Amino acid sequence: MVGYATELIESGVQSTGYLLKDRVFDIRAFLESIERVAAGGVAIDPDVVGQVISSRRRTPLDELTPREREVLELMGEGLTNAGISQRLYISGGAVEKHTQRLFAKLGLSEDAGVHRRVTAVLTLLAR
Fold first, then answer.
1. CA gyration radius for the chain?
2. 3-class DSSP state for residue 17?
């Protein structure tokens, strides 16, 4: 439902309606929605709007800088810090700084039981 509703909203088409049949109890309100859409307006169920908005919420990945994102993607390709350093033409120290910052932004603290690189890459893939 969210995917279709998002596509419908983003299309920019006027005269748009998206109502959930399970929530249409009031015939008068339903007819008013139909008339509103027929007149060029919009009628979207509040639950649909809420779900679309919640699906658009920012994640910690959105806080990464372009370079941190690039480092994370190269981690996902299996590159070591040295490999990332060579690929991006930056020092190993710079790779380490970007890595530490992206771990912090993703909320991945040092824990002997968790491999932060793997968790960071899984976070990227889950998006």
1. 23
2. strand
**Alpha helices per DSSP H over 66-113:** 66-76, 81-88, 92-105
Q: What is the largest CA-CA distance in the chain?
A: 67
d(CA 49, CA 55): 10
Q: Specify the length of the chain in residues.
A: 127
**d(C-alpha 66, C-alpha 20), whole Å:** 40
pTM for the model: 0.57
Tens digit of each residue's pLDDT (9 = 90 or more) over 5-62: 777 667 767 778 888 888 788 888 889 888 988 988 888 888 877 777 776 677 888 8
Beta bridge partners of 42: 16
65-95, pLDDT tens digit by residue? Answer: 999 999 999 999 999 999 999 999 999 999 9
∠28-11-3 over CA atoms, to 5°? Answer: 80
